[in-house]
Design goal:
- There is one protein chain.
- The protein has six helices and 19 strands.
- By secondary structure, the protein is of the alpha+beta class.
- It folds into three domains: 93 residues, no CATH class; 134 residues, Jelly Rolls, CATH 2.60.120.1440; 72 residues, 3-Layer(bab) Sandwich (Phage tail protein beta-alpha-beta fold).
- Helix 1 packs across helix 2.
Amino acid sequence: METDKLKRLFRQYLLGQSGEKETGTIDNWYQSFDNEPIAPLNRQEEEAIRLEIWQNIRPELEKKKVHYLKRTLAAAAAVILLLAGGLTYYMVNKSISAYTEIATAIGQRKTIQLADGSQLTLNAGSIVRIPKNMREERRLNIIDGEVFFDVKGDPAVPFIVESGPLTTTVLGTSFNVAAYKDINRMSIAVTDGKVSVLRTGSTAHVLVKDQALTYDRAKNIATIDAIDKSLLGWRQGTMVLNDASFGDMVVLMQKNFGLTLTTSQVKIRETRYTTELSTNMDPVKAAEVLAAIHNLKIEVTGHVVTLYE
């Protein structure tokens, strides 16, 4: 029998991969030695034969190990993914269930008392997320709109308000946060006490009574000035526009009066708007007053108000 063929058949035989015909061939080959005297082998010959057999069998055994390891790793990975997915689902749902959202409708303002003794007032069209257990965690998140906070001091548990890129930390104070998601400028105004305002990628700013921080999202610039108390007039039912862009005016008119303002004229879009409107006014009347102050005319179709010259 040719040596190469014998090696191949012998390898398959040892690994249990030989067919019936190949197994018979190996058995016959073994039997052919039964009546032949076996010459004794010295230690060097025995070692050479053992090494050759191992070198031929080892690659096949390694393949089986790798395949088995791959299957084991795949199974382990699947288990890990299932556990990770389950843990993520649990943590996300736990996080969501640990908070409650308070929202105000168009034209509505709402004051609520928190469990820690603090009080907050939401402007129209605002959404704020509040921890269910305010005694353990006092971290609130303004999703949209404007909120006035009157915070009860607790040195052990700081009061934190997140509003997009700005994070405000206080111990006990009263302050206002305007963080409308569709308005470029954000503001934090302190009416009493002291707060620390940290913006993403920057150092903290400390504000004291009668100071306000204005943040321009587009330019990533924050400025600190004396507070403009007229901007807090919403708590007394007044919508204040102070050099507002057309886009900002559209957002505030929609939230306070439920009107959608639009125009096809570039000049009107580029105009800055300053006025004060009582939020108790009839919506169309409010639009008429706004237009008259800026020498404009309006056309009303349902809740859509078109401005033109």
